[in-house]
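Hi W.,

Here's what went into the run:
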Amino acid sequence: MKKIVLSLSIIILTAFAIQSCDKIEQNDDGTYTVYSGAVGEWINGNGVADKSQRALLEKYTGLRCNNCPKADTVIATATAQYNGLLIPVSIHDSSFSFCRPWTFSTPTGNEWSHYFGTFGQYPQAIVNRSLSGSSFDRFDPTSGITSHVDPLVQQSAKVAIAADAACANNTINVTVNLEFVETVAEPLTLTICIIEDNLVATQLQPDGHTWDSNYVHNHIFRDVVTDMWGADIDCSGTAGEKRMAVFSTNKINPDWKLENCHIVAFVSYKESRDILNVVECEIE
Amino acid sequence: MKKHLKLLFVATIIIFMKGQGSSVKAQGIMGGHVTGNVQLDGQFSSRDSIIGATDVPEKMLSNVRADILYTNGNFSAGLRYEAYLNPMLGFDPSSKFKGQGIANYFVSYKTQNFTVTAGHFYEQFGNGMTLRAYEDRYLGIDNALRGVNVMYRPFRGITFKGVLGQQRYFWETRGLVRGVDGEVNLNDLITSWNESKTRLTLGGSFVSKYEDDETILSDMPGYKLQLPKNVGAASVRMDLAHGGFGLQAEYARKGQDPWLDNGYIYKPGEALWLSASYSQKGLSANIQAKRVDNMGFKSVRSVNERQMLYINYIPSITKQHTYAFLSMYPYGTQTTGEMGVQGDFIYKFKKESLLGGKYGTDIHLNASLITGLDTTLVGGKGTDGYTSSFFGTGETYYGDVSLEIAKKLSSKVKLSATYGYVLFNPVVEGHPGDIHHNHVLVADLTWKINRKNVLRFEAEWMGSDSKYSELVDDKRCGDWIMGLVEYNFTSAWFVSVSDQYAYNDGVGNYYNVSVGYTKGATRLQLGYGKQREGIICIGGVCRNVPASNGLTFSLTTSF
Amino acid sequence: MKKAILTITAMLFFGLSFAQNAKLPENISIKTLDGKTVETSVIQNDGKPIIVSFWATWCKPCNRELNAIKEVYEEWQEETGVKLVAISIDDTRSASKVKPHVDGNEWNYEVYLDQNQDFKRAMNVVNVPHTFLINGKGEIVWQHTSYVDGSEEELFELVKKLANGEEI
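Here's what came out:
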């Protein structure tokens, strides 16, 4: 009997040994492939099926900004209306979050806020970082945003953009595909941001003195995967060109709940910082 | 470094042999033995545009091999010399094969319960579905592993085997293969079962290969495949016998293994093989079934040579036909996916019975059918490839029925008549075209004139459906007729003359004359004639042989 | 260098091979028809001659030879006590057909399977049929490859000589 048990157990162990072979996880599209270039290297891509022109709405805000909840309502309504064409991002800087350790301000947010001239006067919004004359066309979103968004999304896109993101081994990899619909001669950059939803934190309410400690903050800008002013796009910019690159970061703050995070990526002119197109995607 | 190792190895054997050799003479007791065999094949071929034979620039091609084996009690060692100067037609003509050298060497120590072999070795686990390192010199296959092979029997009835090695690839070794196998014979193991009429053997094996990462681009620009470096295959098997009944089964699975022949897909492989038989004196029946799904297993992912570097072997279940026309369209196992059934039936009408006559009559009936799998495509390279339903069948690949009746007509004359039907789908050889159907008739008569003189006549006819030969625009795919006369005298010599003729074509005559001489374990054969291009298959594994025209010779000897 | 190795090896084996008859290997694993693994040492015949015949189900001459011997096997056994041991080299494709084949053809031989062809290699068998004659001491005294109808009678002459204690 002892012999049988011994032999059987060895055979069973042997059968289980098959577990020791490598298992490649399947991607969502059913493939087992991986980007073949180096991180940040631009190579010929697969093209982008969706050629829509989308708009990035950056809302500069703070926890002590009593009109910001109103702006959130307006933006939520508009986001639903535009059905994916409007991508909102909430950027906190340090001005209205003074002495609040749990605020969502970031050095990048501060820098942008200063650059676009929104620092210290909230809520302020800017769509696709578009220019009005020589300065950025910033406005108060509580007074309506559609007049700023409509002219942008009604254009046809010069550059189509698609992104995929996945997180493994504490590294987020973002694959971005670009396809030039029209020729763009100017140098371009790509910026990738990590955005988190469903953050519960206190927020000053419109009455100016009530603090709602259960306020749900959405679209909070957490960090950039690329440089804050984007990574240079290596391309000729001629119509029909397809380029792709993968960017990755392992600087993941343990406070972030990755399951609530998503990626926003946008292409902008290197000189003017005006955004050509933007896309958002989930992190797998 | 490699050369030095070889030299060291040879030197070791020589020293060992020398020591033993002198002790034989000095003490006059049983020492070691050296045995061996030599095979020399040569070929002269010249151009014949009608049959498509091309000139051989070197005039003569030859394959030579010589095995030398030394045994002394539990110890044995051997080496094999091979030369391809230059390789014969049908063997890889590239510079990879050309040349000569020591292709195989080993040392082995064997006791009843323990064996260890270092160097080149051949091994098979179960039916070979996870591992079969073997050689077939006629197919030019040598999947020998070079490494270490261990067998251990801890108790009566239990056998473990382990292998670790690299596979032979022309004159190099490639890949890394590791495997273990366990087998339990319950009748040997359990004392009370020792004499049981029912005999049961169970076994299992696990084999894994390792291969470094490489860049294989996906169909999507910019992406490459994420390759598994370790790929495993495992199987379980049983062999049950009760009197005349026998039942054998093996089921194997393989992990994700994208490689050239499966189009770099990630679907796990599986294979099931079943065989049931019943036999008694003068009667036997055997039924086999199998299902193979993406179970080709090579130690190197991307290798062009079709039959090289296979780790496993999927047993073919079709009958290995020996008559020329029945084997004109042989079937090679489709390791990527196939299903098949086969039935084999042998019956002997007894002497003095109604159908048996004075000497008895033998009947051998065999039929098989092989189809593809019922698959649904889900993607190309770098995906799972396809899904398949377990019981669904796809396109018909091959089928055959053969009935052979053999009868001794008198004490001197024996006649065997065979009818065969072969259905063949050229798609299995990668050619487009329709299934074609062939009918074959064979008469094989042996006339033993006296003890020293034997004549054998063989006549064959094959009729094919004309649709196929029109489709491929080659009348040689149509009807054929063949005759052969073979004369054996003094039991050492034979002369044979044969001709195969595609009579619709009216041009191609494939005649052959051969003379052979056998003495003891030495055999010399000379042939002159035209050889049809075709496919030689042994055990479901095939090799393409191009047309040739000219002289061939073959010498084999064992000592 | 390779030439040198070959020359030395060739010289050595010529020097040795005339020493005496090789013995039948004893420790090679083969299988019985009911799946039991045994060693080649089971090939025994109480000091009487043994014919060891390598064959395969798909080999026509092998079948002709074994069928021809079948007709006279009983007489041979009565006269000389010889035993025929048939070693099938069938691979997996046909190994499961060996027992049905043997029974179907009514062969009364001792049949073993040499699926991994270890025994075949140890005996330097190149082609089947290949027949060995083993004397009472277990020494290989004669071997022959291929079969033509009638050559079994020649084999029997040799068996008779062995049974009478004559040298071959």
